[in-house]
């Protein structure tokens, strides 16, 4: 079975296909959840959040592109881990209804979205190993040691590539007109 076949089978509510995806990606999902939660979640909490991730896949398999399954699961894992932390009283943002809404707030939100899109495009210009290292570290919260082990490179190489990636990203932001400390 491949990912496309598994997703189409999950759309038809085939539990064996979901089990195949769980076997293939549960360690990956657990790692992301653990990296975000640190030691704030118990093993039972991590298991619950992992189950929630695959439950989302169960109900939304039709929306997932087969070549994006791993990224999709990673994104869901990040969001669910953050939700769990918030539900435990960790990382609780101010309630939106307590915050005044003004034209300035809307402008800042728009600028933030615009900057996020600019950063996404800048990341896409990075070459494969650099982009993967950068995303693993800043998006999936992996340590440099984890990245080095999984990519079979030296830890110092990972650190160097991260530094170079940050430098390139800063340069792109600066050239794009964003205020940064250079």
DSSP E strands, number: 0
* Helix share, percent: over 70%
End-to-end gap = 49 Å
Order of helices and strands: HHHHHHHH
Rounded radius of gyration (Å): 19 Å
Structural class: mainly alpha
Mean pLDDT: 81
Share of residues in strands: under 5%
Spatial shape: globular
Largest sheet: none
Low-confidence stretches at least 5 residues in length (pLDDT < 50)?
92-104
Number of helices: 8
Explain this structure.
With 182 residues, this protein is mainly alpha-helical. 72% of the residues lie in helices and 0% in strands. The chain contains 8 helices and no strands. The chain has helices spanning 3-11, 15-37, 43-60, 69-87, 103-124, 128-138, 144-151, 155-175. The protein is globular and about 50 Å long. The relative contact order is 0.09. Mean pLDDT is 81; it is low at 92-104.
Spell out the blueprint of helices and strands.
Elements: H1 3-11, H2 15-37, H3 43-60, H4 69-87, H5 103-124, H6 128-138, H7 144-151, H8 155-175
Key features?
182 residues; mainly alpha
Give a short summary of the structure.
The chain is mostly helical and 182 residues long. 72% of the residues lie in helices and 0% in strands.
């Amino acid at each position: 079975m491949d990912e496309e076949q598994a997703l189409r089978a999950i759309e038809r509510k085939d539990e064996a296909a979901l089990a195949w995806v769980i076997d293939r990606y549960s360690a990956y999902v657990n790692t992301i959840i653990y990296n975000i939660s640190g030691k704030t979640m118990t093993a039972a909490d991590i298991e619950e959040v992992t189950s929630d991730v695959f439950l989302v896949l169960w109900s939304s398999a039709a929306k997932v592109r087969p070549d994006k399954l791993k990224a999709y699961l990673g994104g869901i894992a990040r969001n669910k881990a953050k939700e769990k932390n918030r539900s435990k009283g960790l990382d609780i943002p101010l309630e939106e209804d307590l915050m005044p809404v003004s034209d300035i707030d809307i402008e800042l939100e728009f600028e933030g979205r615009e900057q996020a899109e600019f950063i996404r495009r800048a990341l896409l210009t990075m070459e494969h190993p650099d982009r993967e290292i950068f995303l693993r570290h800043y998006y999936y919260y992996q340590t440099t040691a984890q990245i080095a082990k999984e990519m079979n490179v030296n830890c110092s190489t990972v650190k160097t590539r991260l530094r170079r990636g940050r430098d390139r990203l800063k340069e792109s932001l600066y050239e794009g007109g964003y205020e940064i400390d250079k």
